[in-house]
Design a protein that fits this description.
Keywords: Hydrogen ion transport, Ion transport, Membrane, Transmembrane, Transmembrane helix, Transport. With 105 residues, this protein is an all-alpha fold. It has 3 helices and no strands. Helix 2 runs antiparallel to helix 3.
Amino acid sequence: MTERETGQDPIGEDARLQSLEQRLKQAHQDEAVRTGAANAGQDANTRLGNRVLAELIGGMVGGALIGWVIDRFAGTSPWALLVMLFLGIVVAFRNIIRISNQRPD
């Protein structure tokens, strides 16, 4: 080494540091995609839509099933089925309205 050189790197931008920063940024993006953190808002909307669909289908199927069982035991075919199906639909819509009135996080 000569007397002028202090043994330290020059203070300019080093291509290796830029390359490292780019690779770290890409690694963070890849990890976010892999763990699902990149689509967190989209997942919340999907869960909400699935919940509304489950409430609607569950209300109708549950009401129809209970009405069918009542019809079988009481011999009132098809009146209990129709009444319970209607009540299941009403309950499903009430639950959907309650879900839609909740404030988002």
